[in-house]
Amino acid sequence: MRKSKVLAKLRAGEAARIAWLTHYVPPTIAYAATSGYDAVWLDLEHNPMDTREVQALLAFYHRFDIDCVMRPPTREKTRLYRFLEDGVTGFVVSHVSSPDEAREIVNKVKFPPVGDRGITTSGLENNYGVDGIDVDTFVQHTLDEEFLFVQIETPQGLAHLDEIVGTPGIDGVYIGPGDMGLRLKQLPPEEQLSMDEVMQRVAAACAKHNKHWGYYGRTVDDLRRQYELGARMLVWGVDAWIMKAGLKQAQRELDAVLS
After folding, report:
1. Rounded CA gap, 85 and 141, in Å?
2. How many domains does the chain have?
3. CB 3.0 to 4.6 Å from 211: which of 14, 17, 37, 172, for a disulfide?
4. Which residues pair with 150 in a beta bridge?
C-alpha cells in the first residue's frame, strides 16, 4: 500500500504541489510525477469520464507513485468508496455548506470508528490483496493515508465554516472561487466580501482547528497570496491552460518563421 505524498508534505508543514487533469490523457500523470508534483487533481465534477477510463488513470497514478486528488461527480456512498477501492488517494467534495453535509460525507468514505464505509481488501487500494495485509492494518492505513477535503463555495458554507472545518474526519477545506464569487454577488452590498476576505476567514478557521486549505487561483499573484495566508494545498498546472498556452506559443513561432 502506498503512502500519500500530499499528507506527507502537509504533516511536515510544507506545500503540496498539485497539477490538474481535465482530459483523458494518461501520460499527463507521468509528466507530473516526473516533474516534481505530489498529486494530480482529477476533476470529475465538470469533466465526463467513464468507469474504465478512471480505473485506467488510477493505474497510472499508482505506477508513477503520485496521489490522485479526485473531485468526484457524486456523493452516492458506494460510488465514493468504489473510487477509493480503485486507488483514489483523497477527495475534494464540492458544495459543502453545512456541518451535517460534512459529517455525512465523512460517514460515507471513512471506515469505522470514524465513519461507516463498506470494506473490501481486493482493490488497487490494497494492491489487490497480493501482499497479505491483515484487515486491521489495511483499515488503519486508509485512515492514516487517505484524505478528505470539502469545498466551501457558498455564503452558507462561510456561515458554518468553523463547524465544517472542525468536523472530525475532515482534513481541510478548499475554496471554490468561481461558485463563491457568483453567489457573493447576489448578496446585498453591505454583506458582500472580497475573495481575499474569504481566504482570510478560511485561513483563520483552519489555523484554529489545525486543518489545511487551498484556493483555486488563476494568477501567480493568487498563488503567492494564498501561500502567504497559510494555504498549503497549492494547485498550479492545469492541463487545458498548458495546452492552450503551448499552442499559442507554437503559433507565434510559426508566424515568426512564415513572416
Report:
1. 13
2. 1
3. 172
4. 93, 173
Collapsed DSSP state (helix, strand, coil) of residue 185: coil
CATH number at residue 139: 3.20.20.60
Alpha-carbon dihedral 254, 256, 258, 259, rounded to 10 degrees: 150
pLDDT, tens digit, for every residue of 166-180? 999 999 999 988 888
**Contact present, 38 and 12 (Cβ < 8 Å):** no
CB atoms near residue 201 (< 10 Å): 16
H or E segment and range at residue 138: helix 135-145
What the block records as the C-alpha cell of 140 is: 488503519
> How many helices (H) and strands (E) in the chain?
12, 8
Record the pTM.
0.94
Please provide the distance, in angstroms rounded to a whole number, between the alpha carbons at the two ends of the chain. 56
The identity of residue 147, as a single letter, is: F
Q: How far apart are CA 243 and CA 19, in angstroms?
A: 13
DSSP string, 19-52: EEE-S--THHHHHHHTTT-SEEEEE-SSS---HH
Phi-psi region for residue 172, left (φ > 0), alpha (ψ -120 to 50) or beta? Answer: left
What's the pLDDT at 188?
87
The pLDDT tens digits of the residues spanning 11-62 come to: 999 999 999 999 999 999 999 999 999 999 999 999 999 999 999 999 999 9
Grid cell at residue 4:
500519500
What is the rounded (10 degree) CA torsion for 85, 33, 106, 136?
50
3 state DSSP class of 70: strand
Which amino acid is it at 258?
L
Query: What does the longest C-alpha to C-alpha distance in the chain come to?
Result: 68
SS3 assignment, position 133: coil
